[in-house]
Design goal:
single chain; 202 residues; alpha/beta; 5-stranded mixed sheet; 3-stranded mixed sheet; 8 helices; globular
Length: 202
């Protein structure tokens, strides 16, 4: 953060556009540990997208060999009212919002993609069939990104399960600023996620 457009961009959309690349994006130290093991063992080329804000995160790692399968999403929190799909650094605020909404009787399912290519459509469609409402949260701008691909795939493969339009949350369509105040204003967080859930459940 705070390094402007030269060093603080979200470039995963560029990578998922390249045929033949596997693209992973962990949300925590333990996820990075497990995904990196699988990436090293995979014969295909893997781009490992690390989020700089996660470098300072600390977490106990399992002692056993716990490689996380490539292409397998994780349900971070079970829910029945809506599905929130996210990845990387946005998982933590998504879970925080889901915990907060649970105290008000709302049940939000949170899915951590882990792998951006290939997408785990089986897990996503199973969740949509349960909740019938979907939102996608990403730090990157929404234009032409991971969220756009997810919306297209879900509309094509799970249209009959949707009760309302899919909502996307992402950064404003502008270059990341060097100013921490402007950067904070551009990036999505709990406030934007909460507002989107209000619209989704309305």
């Amino acid at each position: 953060g705070g390094a402007a457009a030269q060093h603080s961009q979200s470039l995963e959309a560029w990578l998922i556009h390249v045929p033949g690349l596997v693209v992973v994006s962990p949300s925590s130290p333990a996820e990075a540990y497990g995904l990196l093991k699988s990436a090293i063992r995979l014969d295909d080329p893997v781009v490992f997208v690390e989020h700089k804000r996660l470098y300072g995160a600390k977490e106990m790692l399992p002692e056993q060999d716990t490689a996380i399968p490539i292409g397998r999403a994780r349900v971070g929190r079970e829910g029945t009212d809506a599905t929130l799909i996210t990845y990387s650094s946005m998982l933590r605020p998504a879970l925080d919002v889901a915990d907060e909404r649970a105290r008000n009787g709302e049940s939000i399912e949170v899915i951590d993609l882990r792998t951006l290519v290939p997408l785990d459509m089986t897990t996503l469609i199973q969740s949509v069939a349960k909740t019938h409402r979907v939102m996608v949260v990403q730090e990157a701008v929404t234009s032409g990104g991971v969220g756009a691909e997810l919306v297209a795939r879900l509309v094509a493969e799970a249209f009959d399960e949707l009760d309302t339009e899919i909502i996307r949350v992402g950064s404003s369509f502008a270059p990341i600023s060097f100013s921490p105040v402007l950067e904070e204003a551009l990036l999505p967080g709990t406030r934007e996620i909460n507002a989107a859930i209000d619209d989704l459940l309305r």
